[in-house]
């Protein structure tokens, strides 16, 4: 019975989160298209046959479809959700050309496409800003309260009460910044600057892969094995600083936090490409469903915070220059700007096919990782 309840929580919380984020993403496309005079024929949450829908006064069909893993907006002149042109665009009447996506200026089409990922970033910023404005922003000073004996930190010369001010050239504002920099080091040597009795001391550390313990008990991962993480062997201060924010400072803090997450995500992807980080860390729908379910168990606040992180990931992934994604369309528009004409429909079609194969392969890899990681 408990397994059934958990499955229901995972599925419902995942579908609710995904539906909200898909709506936000597609609404970005939708609203900028409307602003540029493009008629939107369909706004769908999900793919496949329609479950329920209604048509508004401007002719847009708003609907829910049976396959809830995504969504799309279909503009006037599109043949499919991938925004491929329908028929011979030159045969359209002048009136139809005025409301056709494919007859808009390059800058307008690019703005419409970019608006989807941008909406995801703005949504995440607003979520974070709301929490910062309501509850304040929790910070822990990057002060070393304890150095683990025999650790990389001790060998490098870090001392109790040192203030870590920079890691590999990145400014450190809080102790969690140190954790992130060490985690993304993937075991490579890092330069650490500490403030000690008013002077800056520069040190070099090599993080070590360490088995994680909590209160003397091994911390297990989803695969049932003990978790391992790169660490340098320091503990931060137990003092917690809550920074209060006004409306505008909360928005700025939310923007900065989103920027940090984007930069670290790109850093992790680069490490996977060059081989210093394992592609086994990729997660697919199953992994996201589990994260959504676990966050829902901890409360609606935590679930909303996780939704902000997933929204950033969704916006970032869609900007990758892969045909079929928004970034692929922007890539085509960039080529169009350089050569002075649109790519042929045949070229775009081949691009979309290659993109589809790549995305399906990536999803299969991520799903396979999820299956191996979780202790079913």
* Principal-axis shape: elongated
Distance between the termini: 15 Å
**Helix count from the secondary structure assignment:** 10
Let me know the largest β-sheet.
4 strands, antiparallel
Q: In angstroms, what is the radius of gyration? A: 24 Å
Q: Uncertain spans, ≥5 residues at pLDDT below 50? A: none
Strand content: 15-25%
Q: How are strands sequenced across the largest beta sheet?
A: 6-5-7-8
Number of strands: 14
| Structural class estimated from helices and strands | alpha+beta
Average pLDDT metric: 84
What is the percent of helical residues? 40-55%
SSE ordering: HEEHHEEHEEHEEEEEEEEHHHHH
**Integer tally of domains:** 2
Topology:
Blueprint: H1 2-35, E1 40-55, E2 61-75, H2 94-99, H3 106-135, E3 137-139, E4 144-147, H4 152-156, E5 163-167, E6 170-171, H5 175-183, E7 190-196, E8 199-205, E9 208-211, E10 213-214, E11 217-218, E12 228-231, E13 234-236, E14 241-243, H6 247-274, H7 285-297, H8 300-318, H9 326-339, H10 345-373
Antiparallel strand pairs: 1-2, 3-14, 4-13, 5-6, 5-7, 7-8, 9-12, 10-11
Helix pairs in contact: 1-3, 1-7, 1-8, 3-6, 3-8, 3-9, 6-8, 7-8
Looking at this protein, list some descriptive labels.
alpha+beta, Pdz3 Domain, 14 strands, elongated
Structure description:
This protein folds into two domains: 110-136 and 245-376, no CATH class; 138-243, PDZ domain (Pdz3 Domain, Roll), CATH 2.30.42.10. Helix content is 50%, strand content 20%. The chain contains ten helices and 14 strands. The chain has a four-stranded antiparallel sheet. Helix 1 (2-35) crosses helix 3 (106-135), helix 1 (2-35) crosses helix 8 (300-318) and helix 3 crosses helix 9. The two termini are 15 Å apart. The model has no long low-confidence stretch (mean pLDDT 84).
């Amino acid at each position: 019975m408990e397994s059934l309840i958990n499955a229901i929580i995972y599925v419902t919380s995942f579908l609710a989160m995904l539906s909200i984020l898909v709506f936000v993403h597609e609404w970005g496309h939708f609203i900028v298209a409307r602003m540029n005079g493009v008629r939107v024929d369909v706004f769908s949450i999900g793919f496949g046959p329609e479950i329920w829908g209604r048509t508004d006064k401007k002719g847009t069909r708003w609907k829910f479809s049976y396959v809830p893993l995504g969504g799309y907006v279909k503009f006037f002149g599109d043949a499919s959700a991938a925004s491929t042109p329908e028929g011979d665009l030159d045969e359209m009447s002048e009136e139809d050309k005025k409301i056709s996506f494919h007859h808009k200026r390059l800058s307008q089409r690019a703005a419409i496409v970019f608006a989807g990922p941008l909406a995801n970033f703005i949504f995440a910023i607003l979520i974070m800003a709301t929490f910062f404005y309501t509850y304040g922003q929790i910070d822990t000073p990057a002060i070393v309260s304890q150095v683990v004996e025999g650790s990389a930190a001790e060998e490098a010369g870090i001392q109790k009460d040192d203030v870590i001010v920079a890691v590999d050239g990145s400014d450190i504002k809080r102790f969690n910044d140190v954790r992130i920099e060490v985690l993304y080091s993937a075991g490579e040597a890092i330069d650490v600057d500490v403030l000690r009795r008013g002077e800056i001391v520069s040190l070099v550390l090599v993080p070590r892969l360490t088995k994680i313990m909590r209160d003397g008990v091994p911390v297990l991962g989803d695969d049932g094995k003990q978790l391992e993480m790169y660490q340098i062997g320091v503990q931060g201060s137990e003092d917690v600083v809550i920074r209060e924010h006004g409306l505008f400072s909360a928005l700025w803090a939310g923007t900065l936090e989103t920027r940090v997450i984007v930069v670290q995500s790109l850093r992790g992807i680069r490490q996977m490409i060059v081989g210093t980080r394992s592609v086994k860390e990729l997660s697919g729908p199953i992994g996201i469903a589990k994260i959504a379910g676990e966050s829902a168990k901890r409360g609606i606040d935590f679930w909303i915070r996780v939704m902000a992180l997933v929204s950033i990931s969704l916006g970032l992934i869609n900007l990758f220059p892969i045909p079929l994604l928004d970034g692929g369309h922007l890539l085509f528009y960039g080529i169009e700007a350089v050569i002075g004409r649109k790519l042929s429909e045949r070229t775009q079609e081949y691009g979309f096919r290659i993109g589809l194969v790549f995305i399906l392969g990536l999803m299969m890899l991520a799903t396979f990782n999820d299956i191996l990681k979780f202790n079913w």
